[in-house]
Amino acid sequence: MKMSKRILILVIAVVAVFSFGVSAQAEVYKIGLSLAITGPTSDAGAPYAKGVEDYFRYVNDNKLLGNDTIEPMIRDDQYKTDITKRNFEEFLDEGMEFYLNYSTGSTLALKRDFDEEKIPVVPASMDAGNLIDSTYIFLPTTSYSDQTLGVAEYVVRNHKGGVPKVAMFIHPSAFGRAPVEDVKKAVEAGLKMEIVEVVEHGTDLDNTAMLQRLMSKGVQYVLCQTVQSPVATLVKDAERLGLIASRFGEEKKLTFLGAHYTGGNDLILLAGSAAEGFYWATSFNLTSEPGEGTTFVLDLAKKYGRDDQTANSHNYTAGTTVAQIATEVIKRAKAKKKEITRDNLYAEITAMNGANALNAKTTVGPITYSKTDRKGVDLLQIYSVQKGVFKAVGKPFEPGAAFKTKK
Amino acid sequence: MSANRWLATGNFFSSYKEEQRIFFTHLDRLLFCVLLAVLFIWPLVYEVSNKYMLVLDNILIAMVAIIGLNLVTGFAGLISIGHAAFVGVGAYTLAVFARTIGDSHVLITHAWPLMLIVSGAVGAVFGAFVGLPALRLKHLYLAIATLSFQMIFQWTINFFPLFNQGQTIPVGRVYWFTGMVSRGDHYLFWYYVALVIVIVFGLAVRNLLRTRYGRSLVAVRDNDRAADAMGMNPGLTKVYAFALAGFFAGVAGALHAYLYRGAGIESFTLAQSISYLAMAIVGGLGTLTGSFFGPAAIRMLDLQVENMVEWMKQFLPAAMNLATAFKPLTFGLVIVLFLMFEPRGIANWWRICRTYVKLWPFRY
């Protein structure tokens, strides 16, 4: 009798232990990312992927979600929308609850899928068109239009003497054309600047004719919305022709400015001394401007064995930022004892405003989202290359505040 | 013809009608019907994830395009390096309709079979137009002419706002007799649609090759002067070949746009044209069965290379950089190896296997 009682107690204890184990089982949250790790734009995509991967490893290693972990599913799509869609379907089959996309083309192509699946998405693309006719896409920072408008406003504020003459140097795609209309509307709304020409660059390796033409038309400023390589070619040609301004707005010279994907340390590597005096607008903190956020990024890169180029890449910073957004949203839902579902994550991300804004140290301002505001960081910082390093110029500001155009 | 239609041997025919049969024996027809039944029934029995269903749909759509490419390049001997542009013409025909009248318009959502035919017709018109240089040009020069069409197409799409300057133009969900085809059923639905189209087009081409028009294609390929001397019109035949290829490509393009619910320029670039040519070569130029094997082989190769690179990344962190070269390397290597060692493509392997296995009844 005593023996059978002992056995019964033992059995109950074993069952209790296993039950406890089952109920305390850690959750694994799956977050998908499809991007160009190889192929076109992989110079931005590769460090971006590393930033995302490293931040999630940091979250898991430091148990920021308790015993729960994040499983990032990162796939290379070689900048092809067909492959992105396939990867997206694969992630959905795996039970993904939050998605990080990359290119403008694929984000626009999958827009309706995101809405149908009701899955929150934070892409690397900052095209304002991502927000039109969509509900679930959240830009990480200011859009390309905001960035180009920001540098245009900087030109107007700091130009001396008359109305500045400006040319736009853009990528021959929707990515490049995205901000042109908005800048034109701002000019019509009162931004005192003259857009002399909008140049869509091809794959030309020589811009002599174009630069001479701009000079003959009295252009003083060139606003760039493209990627680093064409900008590097442009400024190197300008340096060769002796056209680069030694100070902002120097007469009979050209001052070059650009949006997020035009700048970064890779531009300096590609363009060398020609990058001196290049003005760049972005919403991210740079490692060349030491601070809490940049120290964190450098430490993260060092911890996970990344080389200096990756650690100092603004794309690596961007990757860590979007991973922070995803993690924070999950963390907040867990804190409220909500189940981690797409609906709950969407509710949390749209509540990320006011006192609930995310102060990611990697951005120049807080990240805020609501149902009507789906651009994360609203502030922009201008940087300029000084002695081979990007240095902050002035304070962060909200672009287009004076010239808000209605869509 | 033998009295036993199930296991008839020999090729003795007593009328042209008997010779024109697609299936010489009832057994052949039965096996074909069993194959069709399997193709239609297996998705209902064996559940496949959306990812692989998308891959299968892509393979079927590529088959439709490659049937057309095989007609013009394989059977008519006219090199075309702009086939993706014809596919793009079909896709953008649908996309322009969607952009102009609305992507949820009943013409797009309910009359989608009509839209497939319209896209094919527009593809045929462009095919005939591009085929005009074929009247004067041959071989490399004709290839350059088709390449120029590819370039013109890409520039046009990227430049004009009507085509959203290359960015995706959305296309709405279609309706079937049971109502709107939901996201859950989307890939399965288009699998069946593409499968029916592949079967219909396959039978159509098989019949075409038995008609005077089909024979004209082959005759013009082999010797257009002799064909002219025999009373055929080589010029008309060449234009006709391009028009037909354009039609098939246009239908494939419209299917692509419906499957992806939009049309964007990235799917119709020169790289895609080269890929189509590779599919035709690997499958077997000048054979109908090659049009089925080629797309399957190339698309599965792409998938397996991706999986292999993902696997390699676990052991070789630097594999990320290797992958930049790995995919085009395998792609190019496969084409070169096939051209060197098996220029007749996978269709020839199929022929050899079939001949090896089928010991009786003999066709001869």
Structure overview:
The complex is a heterodimer of chains A (407) and B (364). By secondary structure, chain A is of the alpha/beta class. Chain A is built from 15 helices and 10 strands. Chain A folds into 2 domains: 203 residues, Rossmann fold (3-Layer(aba) Sandwich); 155 residues, Rossmann fold, CATH 3.40.50.2300. Chain A is 42% helix and 15% strand. Chain A is elongated, with a radius of gyration of 24 Å. Chain A starts with a helix and ends in a 10-residue tail after the last strand. About 1% of the residues of chain A have low confidence. Chain B is an all-alpha fold and 364 residues long. Chain B has one domain: ABC transporter involved in vitamin B12 uptake, BtuC. Chain B contains 15 helices and 4 strands. In chain B, the strands form 2 sheets. Chain B has a two-stranded antiparallel ribbon. In chain B, strands 2-3 form a two-stranded antiparallel ribbon. In chain B, a hairpin with a 2-residue loop joins strand 2 and strand 3. At the A-B interface, helix 3, helix 4 and helix 5 of A face helix 3, helix 13 and helix 14 of B.
Q: What's this entry about, in short?
A:
The complex is a heterodimer of chains A (407) and B (364). Chain A has 407 residues and is of the alpha/beta class. Helix content of chain A is 42%, strand content 15%.
Tell me the β content of chain A: 5-15%
The average pLDDT value of chain B, as a whole number, equals 89
Count of spatially separate domains of chain A: 2
The count of strands of chain A amounts to 10
Indicate the topology.
The complex is a heterodimer of chains A (407) and B (364).
Chain A lengths: L1 H22 L4 E8 L6 H20 L7 E8 L4 H13 L4 E3 L3 H6 L1 H7 L26 H15 L6 E6 L3 H4 L2 H9 L5 E7 L7 H9 L4 E5 L2 H13 L14 E4 L6 H7 L7 E4 L9 H12 L4 H4 L2 H22 L6 H9 L29 E7 L2 E9 L10
Parallel strand pairs in A: 1-2, 1-3, 4-5, 4-6, 6-7, 7-8
Antiparallel strand pairs in A: 8-9, 9-10
Chain B lengths: L15 H4 L6 H20 L4 H26 L7 H19 L4 H4 L2 H20 L7 H21 L9 E2 L4 E2 L2 E2 L2 H26 L3 H11 L1 H6 L4 H27 L1 E2 L6 H14 L6 H26 L3 H23 L4 H12 L7
Helix pairs in contact in B: 3-8, 3-11, 3-12, 3-13, 4-6, 4-7, 4-11, 6-11, 8-11, 9-11, 12-13, 13-14
